[in-house]
Specification:
Oligomer: heterodimer
Number of domains of chain A: 2
Strand order of the largest sheet of chain A: 2-3-1-4-5
Number of strands of chain A: 17
Shape of chain B: globular
Strand content of chain A: 15-25%
Distance between the termini of chain A: 77 Å
Number of helices of chain B: 11
Strand order of the largest sheet of chain B: 1-2
Structural class of chain B: mainly alpha
Chain lengths: ~400, ~290
Amino acid sequence: MQRRTLIKVALTAVTLTALQSTTALAENSVLKIGFVGVTSGPAAAWGISNQRSMEARAAWINETGGYKIGDTTYDIEIVSFDDQKDPKRAIAGMEKMAQEGIHYVVGPNVDDGAAAVRPVAEANGIMYFPYAFPKSLYQAPASNAVLGMVANYQSGPSIYKHLMENEGVKTVAFIAANESDPLSQRDGGVAAAKALGLEVVSDTVTYQVDTTDFTPVLTPVMRSRPDLLVLSGVSPANAPQLIRSARELGFEGIISTETAQDAGVLAEGAGDLANGFISVGGASTPELASPMMNEFVQRYTDMFGEYNDESNTKVYALEYILETLKAKPSAITDVEAFKATMDTFEAPNPYMKGDAKLRYVGMTSFGQRRQVAVPLVVNVYQDGAFETLFVAEVD
Amino acid sequence: MEQILANGIYLGSQYAMIALGLTLIFALMNVLNFAHGQMYVIGGFVTYTFYGQWGVPFVLALVMSCVTLAIIGALIEKFLFAPVIKGSAREESTMLLAAGIAFLLDALILLIFGEKQRGVPKIVDGVFNYDFRLIMPYDRILICVLAILSIVAFIGLMQYSKTGRALRALAQDRIAAQLMGVNVDRYSMIGFALGAMLAGLVGGLLVTITGVNLGMGGATSIKAFMMVMIGGAGVISGAIWGGIILGFMEAIGLAVLSQYGDITYLLIFVSLMIFLAIRPQGLMGKPWG
């Protein structure tokens, strides 16, 4: 008798559990969004800020009941793949996304990875949002890639012009790591500087990606005594060391970069020596951030222990994907419908104060709308935090 | 020229310290410790946590790096390398194990310390500037001096202490040392702990200059292997010379060849290949092992 009762109780428990989980699953459908990027090695900060931004936002959406697209409410699931900054791994990552039936992927983080995944994305109907700058990814006949940030050839000229007009900068030196992204950004920066009439006094000095001591590397650059030192495509790991070495070598000019940086990393690695350092950021400075942006920062911090300022830009890609799908629900499985919607899509930008809009841009640079309209916020580092130097828009 | 010399001495001293631990472990156990760079990174993060985060005096933080790495090294040797060495005569087994440990430590570093570049406040402010011909921040001079003193202390330990004599005996002939009464298991563990401790010490010293991030481990290991190859695997003086030579090659290359782009390491690798083709045992190594 006791045994029979035990079996009955067990069966009832199993049935109830199964019913409960079925009910839970039935509450919301699941929408998978992919991430393929670098989350290990020296450039891990780039990809991890991406991945964590997506996970923090997805958790927030799921906690508040899900995301309604058409008549269906979805829980958002982020499927991540570490490509280790290796194009071969990036291809494997995109193939994994295709196998999982994912049509929207954020990443990869670098030029060669983004170029490598293009055939896989196009063959499998995947829209992807790289943080890579080669124009060929976004110009016709390519149509599946959407640039997730402001490119250096868009931000660089604005920064140089601002510094020429406001700081009297006349000469500039460039230094870059010896790999594809920084070198192409350096070349783009040199061309932009020359076009603006700046004298480029040094543009040949490069350094190994794994360099830890930059004093010997910077010594010859410092001899050229530039007004402006541009750290082309510099990773957050290298920026503080380069700034520190340059200042210790007696450099008193302005230092800038066109990549996003983290104020905490600069404070720890360079301290006051980083004061005046100019970089490109997102919309998190107090004068720009909306209450939703502030809440995102808080949730990210609660979830991962520490915020990363690079997420000020990285927060946008997932929002663009979801908002565009909301505008065109059939695009969940049909990326052609997504592409068609991009031309006219517009929604309020929840992360910025005022009437800023989410919309796709890129007509000037790419001839088609294949870039998210994140604000071009140029920041200057001062005493442990970024201050907004100026804000511009990219078309 | 003064700047090149100063950069060479500074780079050489830190490189020599990195290579010392690696070559010690190789000499004692014939193990190529691919996780040496990761141990260096952990040393940096421990100093960062104690000194940079918790405000513990730098010297104490440095001691904590050494102690932490010595314990990690001893545990790795006792529970991972020793059983594998006893159970397998194939050298690949320890190489694979070392590579596995490197991946494991990388994952643990990411989990515990995060993905960001970390740095600590300068231990000494100010820059020595001799008419812009020789510029060297005081903290680099101090770290360089500390590195040289550490190397001297390590050589003293190896030459004049009972432990050092036992370790040298072990490195020269493991069986003969055992027959002479040296507790091979115990001194293997001590040797590995000492090698790991050196990695922790240099990681702790250099975090004040270069900062630390989780991606530094692999690159540090490669440089350490290059120095060991130049100097001769398993030879203490060889590691020191290997470090100094690599440091000077880098300093000279970066100063003289900068206008040609990043070809310094290309030339260093080519030189290394030619050198090894002529003298495969390195500067101080013996042809018979």
